[in-house]
Amino acid sequence: MKPVAVFQHCHNVQPGHFASFLDEQAIPWQLVAIDRGDAVPVDIEAFSGLCFMGGPMSVNDSLPWISQELALIRQAVAIDMPVIGHCLGGQLMSLALGGEVTRNPVKEIGWGRVQATDTPAALHWLGNTQSFDAYQWHGETFSLPKGAVRILGGEYCANQAYVLGPQESIHLGMQFHIEMTQALILDWNTDWAAECDAIKPLPASVQTTEKQLADMPRALPVMRSVADRLYSRWVQGLLR
Predict the structure, then answer these.
(1) What is the pairing mode between strands 161-164 and 131-142?
(2) Are strands 171-174 and 83-86 parallel, antiparallel or unpaired?
(3) Alpha-carbon distance 179 to 203, whole Å?
(4) Alpha helices in 48-138 (DSSP H)
(5) Is the peptide bond before 201 cis (omega within 30 degrees of 0)?
(6) Is residue 36 classed exposed, middle or buried when 0-12, 13-18 and 19+ CB atoms within 10 A define those classes?
């Protein structure tokens, strides 16, 4: 089987549980470390699917690799090759497919509740899951590209996850970080602590580090279970 291409855009925004899931399923994957200077592949023939991770940059920034990744996403969607996006990755998917990425009304940082929509697509991807606390770290949001169906929404950011493709069953774009591990959460709260400290007064959509860590033993296992279901659905479409 050809590998899944996993695009990493920042040294501490790693594939996390997504990589662990692929390893557990014996699905090969190849890291494309944009943050280390790896070149964006010119075509997708070598891969079975594409995964895009997050990062602190904006998809609207003038970075040379952004337009290249947008082109790859369009190539993949045209041939029904599964694409999955985490936060920045979900925004890249939206922009590539005709949506737009704008500033969210508030920043979301920490554990934030997301709710499933009453749609067949949500049932297909989420089963009986109605809501859960997802890990958030973003200041922008995406619109739904043409043909996409929202499967998760939230109080502070309406579009939390969408799907598209034949029967809404192939591509998944997310605003939150379902790939998180305990180690990544600790790293982000060390590396980016100043971002939270600079938000005054602290809105309800932003948690302190102390609150994030206090909620982690409860929230992380639940989110991991949802991640496994979403990832299991996504890999069913990988090109063999």
Answers:
(1) unpaired
(2) parallel
(3) 25
(4) 64-78, 88-96, 120-126
(5) yes
(6) exposed
137 φψ region: left (φ > 0), alpha (ψ -120 to 50), beta (else): beta
Identity of residue 9: H
Nearest to 232 by CA among 2, 7, 17: 17
Q: Are 134 and 114 in contact (CB under 8 A)?
A: yes
Query: What is the pLDDT tens value at each position of the chain, 240 positions in all?
Result: 999 999 999 999 999 999 999 999 999 999 999 999 999 998 899 999 999 999 999 999 999 999 999 999 999 999 999 999 999 999 999 999 999 999 999 999 999 999 999 999 999 999 999 999 999 999 999 999 999 999 999 999 999 999 999 988 899 999 999 999 999 999 999 999 888 878 888 889 999 999 999 999 999 999 999 999 999 999 999 998
Distance of CA 237 to the CA centre of its chain: 17
Number of residues written out for the chain: 240
Domains and CATH numbers, the chain: 4-235 (3.40.50.880)
Map residue 208 onto helix, strand or coil: coil
148: left (phi over 0), alpha (psi -120 to 50) or beta: beta
In whole angstroms, give the CA distance from residue 130 to residue 185. 24
Task: Name the residue with tokens 């109080």.
Answer: 155
Residue-level pLDDT at 40: 97
Under 8 Å between Cβ of 12 and 191: yes
